[in-house]
């Protein structure tokens, strides 16, 4: 598993625990018990500390700028900010290279497939209502109907 995937996963878990911590604090403030805030608070503190260290390690492995690293750390301080970091860090994740298919390679310009289609159709062969030119285009002509 790559470092960016670990950062994304940790950001997601940290954001979820942060939101749960806010809910636990509301429960504590309403007088319904302080145990949920203590449990979720310690879990969030542990994950957040791990997240900070992980982002700093990723900064040197991926060669993030200090500006990017600071933005990722500051966004995580906002409730739900880890979800934003998850989406932001995704664009730094290395993607596997796929081989290019033959049919897509020449779609925009002079493709060898279109040239072959024009050759196989043959220049000067005539059909009803039109003639096939050398490049594979059909030129319509008027047919007498009378």
Question: What distinguishing features does this structure have?
Answer:
146 residues, mainly alpha, 3-stranded antiparallel β-sheet, 3 strands
Give the SSE layout.
Layout: H1 3-29, H2 35-62, H3 66-75, H4 81-89, H5 102-105, H6 112-121, E1 126-127, E2 130-132, E3 138-140
Antiparallel strand pairs: 1-2, 2-3
Instruction: Please tally the helical runs, counting DSSP H or I stretches of 4 or more residues.
Output: 6
Q: What's the helix-strand series?
A: HHHHHHEEE
Rg value: 31 Å
Tertiary shape: elongated
Strand order of the largest sheet: 1-2-3
Helix content: 55-70%
Look at the helices and sheets and give the structural class: mainly alpha
Beta-strand segment tally: 3
Fraction in beta strands: 5-15%
Structure description:
The protein has 146 residues and is mainly alpha-helical. Helix content is 60%, strand content 5%. The chain contains 6 helices and 3 strands; from the N terminus they run H-H-H-H-H-H-E-E-E. It has helices spanning 3-29, 35-62, 66-75, 81-89, 102-105, 112-121, and strands spanning 126-127, 130-132, 138-140. A 3-stranded antiparallel beta sheet has the order 1-2-3, with no helix packed on it. Strand 1 (126-127) and strand 2 (130-132) form a beta hairpin. Helix 1 (3-29) runs antiparallel to helix 2. The chain starts with a helix and ends in a 6-residue tail after the last strand. The model is unreliable at 111-120 (pLDDT under 50).
């Amino acid at each position: 598993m790559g470092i960016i995937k670990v950062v994304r996963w940790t950001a997601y878990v940290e954001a979820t625990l942060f939101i749960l911590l806010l809910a636990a604090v509301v429960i504590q403030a309403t007088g319904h018990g302080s145990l949920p805030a203590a449990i979720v608070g310690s879990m969030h503190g542990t994950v957040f500390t791990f997240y900070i260290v992980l982002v700093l390690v990723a900064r040197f492995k991926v060669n993030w700028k200090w500006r990017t690293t600071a933005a990722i750390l500051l966004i995580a301080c906002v409730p739900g900010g880890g979800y934003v970091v998850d989406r932001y860090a995704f664009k730094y994740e290395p993607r596997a290279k796929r081989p290019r298919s033959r049919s897509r390679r020449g779609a925009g310009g002079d493709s060898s497939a279109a040239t072959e289609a024009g050759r196989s159709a043959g220049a000067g062969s005539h059909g009803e209502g039109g003639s096939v030119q050398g490049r594979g285009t059909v030129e319509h002509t008027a047919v007498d109907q009378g």
